[in-house]
Amino acid sequence: MTMTDFTNTASGDARVGYQAGIVVNLNGSYKVPPGATPEEIFRIGVEFLKARMPLEARKLIAKAIALGHATEEVHFYRLLAQLSGKNLRELNSDDMEGLKTICTELPELRGNDDWTVGLRSVVAMLTYFSSTDEPALLDKELAGLPPLQRELIVDHLGELLDGSVQDRMWLRSVERAGQLQLANDRENRVWIFFEPEPRRPRRRYAGRPRIRLADLLRAGLGGAAFLYAIGSIGWLLARGGEATLLLSFAAAVAGTAVSLWSGSIWHFRVRRVRVKDAELVPSRRRRREAPAGGFARRVDRIFDDCFGRYVPRDTDRSYWLKQTRGLRERLRDEVVDMYRDQPVKADEIAWLIRHLVADVKRRWQKDTLTAYRQRWRTPAWVQVSCLAGLPVLAIGCFQIAPAVVATSPIAGTGWIVLALVSAVICAPALLAIVGEHLRVPADQAEYDEQYRDRFLAYQRWADKLAPRPSDREMADWLECDRKLLVDRALRQYRLRASQVIAHAFIEAPHRGTKRARVHHGPLRYSKYQMLLFLLTDDGVRQVNFLHDFEDTDSFPTERLNYRFDAVAAVRVHGSPTSRQHFELTPVNGEPITALISETIDENIHPDEDVTALSEATLDASGLPRTLNVLEGVAAEGKEWIRYQQRRIEHRLEVLGDILRPSRG
């Protein structure tokens, strides 16, 4: 295979298809609180180390020592942070100067507590390279360590050894990675890390009745005129003194009141059913598309996605989407209106949208989408009372109208006409006003029922997200994946660990990946495009993997072999606060590029620094180590191996002279 065959293997804009990055709030933040004690600073440094961010760990542990916290445990972790994940040939001059500084500050190791014993073993590993000790002696010493210290040394310093000891350490490390890869219920928990913390449902309020001024004027003026006319008619009848006419007048008034009240209820219920029916019908007005990148547009996408996936059984998707279009528009508008005035991300209420769509699907399957028609159907007693009042009113009017006109032809006729005209003006307004007063409690009861249902759904979702993994667990799982991928590549090439001069990863976020981070923590991705480089005496073996972190599923996308002198240049371009790309330029052919970091431009807390976050992400990915190895190869070719070995041997001799007295 020529060099041009693998051009742009991992290139491309990995931002395509991204969900918005999220920040999850977990205990154990990487932030050093103001006024932290030296011990607290040290503990946070240890968290950085355990999360595979040794650069920041070194700074914090060194700061804790400078402030006076310098126990054997602190020195133990400081050495681990200085050497974590490296082998001898990868140690540069800065690493060796750091080791020299650390070793000159080591106390006499004469105690027998676990940390002193562990520290002595790390020192023994370093002096082993500049002495004639048998490998078996070192192996025996490691086997006799307390479990915690032995696991930490194997985990962080396993690659520091060489020869048969390195092979045995590597096998232990791989075996342990296989045991821990799915530890702590990873399969059922890892997806939770990429889920945003859900926002609580908002309670809706019906508010006050919305009554138009025109209705108030019509009801007030028309009602006053009607009552004045009825009162005048009653006064004329009272002057006549006929009991029969007075009873007819009273019956007509009672019939009017009963018909008006029951008719208002009837009118409200019929109108409410019509409003609910209208909610199922798409709006005839042309809807304006929400601005790109805004909250409403993201809510639109989630609704469209959920309705596209939550299709009822035995239902055609296109028919489902067509029939629920109106309801989809109403639910979308409701959600946008509820949360528009809050600093809310659409992903934080995705649970609510899923719940709403699932509820529509459930009602569709049970054929209860129009159950409101039964709920708001007008009761028979309301209809009967309304219809019964009308004939009573009619009979009373036929009896009293001639008597009123006979008693006072001009005035009586005027009162009757005024009563009829004012009733026509006043009745529709009264129906609207009474309907509004009935709507408010009906809406509030419906909103309260919805809130209870949504709050239960919120609690169920929050409980499901409760076992969210910590960033430390995510780092441990990813490190296990890395080791198993390296072991897989070694077996494919039939190599032993001791035959590999160095190995290095480039971890690029894959297209369509989800991403998340903890406060002050590095970005973690659900899918990675991993470029693994194995440096051997024969050249570079490169294996590219597509790694699904959620499913722990990986498969190689390409295998490449090339000589050291085929690498012309290695570089990272882009500022720490923007997107950065790794680029390996061969002597002949187009560069291999990979997006290694995304712009961290969302959900930045006021106390977070974008540059520090970017550096933490690159540190967690192991990029500094990878660049150190590949830049050396690009600069010196195969001679890098020989030169580096000479440099290391000389520095170890100096280091051995410093360390031997410390072994006690």
TrEMBL record:
Keyword entries, A-Z: Membrane, Transmembrane, Transmembrane helix
What is the name listed in the Swiss-Prot or TrEMBL entry for this protein?
Uncharacterized protein
Q: Which residues cross the membrane?
A: 216-238, 244-266, 380-401, 413-434
